[in-house]
Amino acid sequence: MSLAVNFLMTMDGAVQEHVRVAKMSLRLYELANEYKFLQDSLFDSETGEINESAMNRLNELDKPIQDKCINTVRAMKSLEAEYKAIEQERKAMQAREKALKDQVEWIKGYLLANMEKSEIKEISCPQFVIKLRKNPESVEIFDEDSIPEEYTQIEIKISKEAIKLAISGGIEVPGARLIQKNSLSIK
């Protein structure tokens, strides 16, 4: 038996083993790995001959891979709908929380103003004590334009838009480069 024929028989055996393993497990990544393996073993590198069993199995894998992708998107859409419902409820709860906090703050301000107006410093009852207290001094800015520069801070922020324009225009920007990634589009 020639070396080429022996190699083809060995490759055919490897392909059949891959087929056997793939039939037992139907995970998408395993199907994709098998597809890639079969593509790589489709042609004999020495003779250039086509491995027919690899070709047949590649054709058989197209539909299962497409079905897995479709079912994966269906599962993803179900999860997406659930997280969007949670997000919507969270926003509603946050709005309710803010409304309640605003009411509490308004009531505190109402009590403070009326206790100050009445010059009442303390009120006691069995459940709690209400007291006016002096807070630590704080700064109130009433005219930002009048504040001297020595009392200001400048925040430095990297402008990705400017860097992209510069690199696109042929200018090298140390520490940055343009990259292009893939994304998934489902319509």
Can you describe this structure in just a few lines?
With 187 residues, the chain is mainly α. It has helices at residues 3-24, 28-40, 52-118, 160-168; strands at residues 122-124, 129-131. Helix 1 (3-24) runs antiparallel to helix 2.
Account of the protein in words:
The chain has helices at residues 3-24, 28-40, 52-118, 160-168; strands at 122-124, 129-131. The relative contact order is 0.05. 59% of the residues lie in helices and 3% in strands. The protein is elongated and about 100 Å long. It has one domain (1-134). The protein has a two-stranded antiparallel sheet with strand order 1-2.
* Secondary structural class: mainly alpha
Number of domains: 1
Rounded to an integer in angstroms, the radius of gyration calculated over CA atoms is: 35 Å
The averaged pLDDT comes out at 85
Unreliable segments of 5+ consecutive residues: 1-8
Main pleated-sheet profile: 2 strands, antiparallel
- What is the chain-wise order of helices and strands? HHHEEH
Give a count of the beta strands, DSSP E runs of length 2 or more: 2
Overall geometry: elongated
Helix content: 55-70%
Can you list the strand order of the major beta sheet? 1-2
Strand content: under 5%
Number of helices: 4
End-to-end distance:
55 Å
How are the elements arranged and paired?
Elements: H1 3-24, H2 28-40, H3 52-118, E1 122-124, E2 129-131, H4 160-168
Antiparallel strand pairs: 1-2
Helix pairs in contact: 1-2, 2-3
Descriptors for this entry?
about 190 residues; mainly alpha; 4 helices; disordered N terminus
